[in-house]
Amino acid sequence: MKRQWKFIVVLAIGVIGLLADFVFHIDLVTEVLIDIAGVYIAVCLAMEMINDVKEGHMGIDILALIAVVSMMITRDKWAEWMILVMSTGGETLEDYATGQANKELRALLDKNPRVANKLVDGKIVEVKVDDLQIGDQVLIKPGQQVPVDGKIIDGSSQFDQSSLTGESVPVDKSVGDDLMSGSLNGATAVTMEVKKLAKDSEYQSIVALVKSSEAQPAKFVKMADRYAVPFTIISLIIGIAAWVTSGSFTRFAEVMVVASPCPLLIAAPVAMVAGMSSMSKHHVIVKSGPTLEQLGRAKTFAFDKTGTLTQNQLVIQEVIPEAGFTKEEIQSDAASLETQSGHIIASSLVKGTPKDWIKPVSDLQESTGNGVSGTVNGKRVKVGKLAYVAPDSGVKKAPTTAVYVSVDGKYAGHITFKDQLRPETPATLARLRRQGAKHIMMLTGDNQDVANAIAEAAGVDDVRSGLLPAEKIEAIKGVSEDNRPVVMTGDGINDAPSLTAADVGIAMGAKGATAASESADVVIMTDDISKINDAVAISKHTMKVAEIDVITAIVVVILLELVAFTGLIPAFWGAVLQEAVDMVTICLALLAKTEPKNPKQTGLAA
User: Fold this and answer.
1) SS3 of 597, please?
2) Are 50 and 59 in contact (CB under 8 A)?
3) Which of 57, 384, 437, 588 has its CA 20 to 30 A from that of 476?
């Protein structure tokens, strides 16, 4: 808003100056007002330049600063005013273009549920979403958004979850089903019970991530730095040469007017924001502009295994009974006991066992971290770790995830489990290679046999197993410079340090805001790892658009400088031409919102 006000004030000074000059014939008023504005703008530019240098960037504002000061020295008040219009107008145009590029992100924020229909003694009371408490009952009317995460306790309807999962087909929900905040109710009212506070709910967690990305705008990127130094040097050489050959400082000032760095300053940030907005359409939240640059150049992709390359849903792999026992017997006994446990292995075992195999259990006892025991059909059954179930049996531990079973003190066998590979994982990794990935790693705390099996099915070429979180960080840091930037993808709390250590951290955040989501630079809001391909494609497309835009603007500006060198462009009209270049630059930058189609960017066939 401050930048817009600067532009408005400069325009107002022009109007006052025109009245003073041509109506009241008081030239001094115009000169004083324009000089005051010039000094203010020059100070602002100098401060921005100093801050850029402190942050390690080229202080490219020096060209705009020289242009303003040059016009003040030449006493060409209307040319000076036009320079101020160009400088403040360029900032205003950038803000407008950023707002256009940022539409999808803003739309997401605007849809954030703010009120809810709370049921109190059977009556509807409209309350703020932030005031809802766990256990409250809320009525979701037809066409309304679910305000917070909850569970249906009355009614059934279809819910549009596309803003959360990307799934365009509405999902049927009935009593007992979970509802995600932000999903849109269909044609039937339902009543739900609040399960999470607003700040912890699904949609609000996405909004928090979007706000985080807005708080870290793409003000400057390395790409702009690469062109800033040669552009500044060339412009100064042309300007000084014009001064020397003409013998007039005015000629130098005219070159400096068209040498304004506005296109270079505008092109990259607007393209970055457009790219970030395009990401949000694909349910990918990018927290900062420079992340796009890193992601577009990434050569190494590292992945956690469980919940990232796999579905984090174990299935029964094999039932191996000892002599005297049958597969059905030990699976039935084990599943009957595990119905009382919430552990992922227990739930996987119960889920994979026919319901008519589940028997009543009595005298159930649990040994925390070891297993459970109880009586099933008159038999004393133990299920759990080998050391708990049969410590003196001499049985060799299975090389994969397993539970062991004993019946009446005798070792009965074991059941092995395997993690399910995501169906989209092999295609995702193959496409990453076509997008330019040189090195794909899997970093897991699981054992080597399990890791190798998943890696082979997924198409991973570098497997690191049995790793602790600190060892994952060392693996990331150990990647050679030739294979950087490094992108790390994970979903669990234990992945958060690794995501921070990588050049780009990507979190699978479909299940809400976790430590991984908070530590990551990019958050995928759907349970679909192929979104990484979309993120890479958009990043490459955005950087290509930005680079073409910057180079085009530089070429046009240098051509204008050469024309100004001859004295054919007065300072006033030079500033007008520079503003036109700004407009063209912004229009080109907004092309970053278009869908990438180049096979080298998308990894898809032409």
Assistant:
1) coil
2) yes
3) 57
Q: Which of 63, 44, 29, 36 is nearest to 238 (CA)?
A: 63
Q: What residue type is assigned to position 364 of the chain?
A: L
Taking CA atoms, 597 is separated from 298, 515, 546, in Å, by 19, 34, 16
| pLDDT the model gives residue 217 | 43
Task: Report the pLDDT value the prediction gives residue 302, as an integer from 0 to 100.
Answer: 95
CB-based contacts of 96: which residues, under 8 Å, 6+ apart?
none
Q: Using only C-alpha atoms, what is the Rg of the chain? A: 32
Answer yes or no: are the C-beta atoms of 71 and 80 closer than 8 Å: yes
Ordered DSSP codes for 286-321 = ES-HHHHHHHHH--EEEEEIIIIIEEEEEEEEEEEE
Cα angle: 575, vertex 579, 582; to 5 degrees: 140
The candidate with the shortest Cα–Cα distance to 504, out of 304, 308, 301, 306, is 301
Please give the backbone phi and psi of residue 436, each rounded to the nearest 5 degrees, phi first.
Answer: 115, 0
- Residue 304 falls in the annotated catalytic set: yes
Would you state the pLDDT for residue 218? 44
* 146/118 Cα distance (integer angstroms): 12
Q: Which of 257, 258, 287, 263 is nearest to 275 (CA)?
A: 287
pLDDT of residue 470: 78
CB of 191 closer than 8 Å to CB of 178? no
Length of the chain: 606
Active-site residue identified among 149, 160, 304, 495:
304
What are the C-alpha distances in Å from 205 to residues 109, 201, 215, 285? 11, 6, 15, 11
Burial class (CB in 10 A: 0-12, 13-18, 19+), 380: middle
pLDDT score of 492: 61
- Determine the Cα–Cα distance for residues 417 and 414; give it in Å rounded to an integer: 10
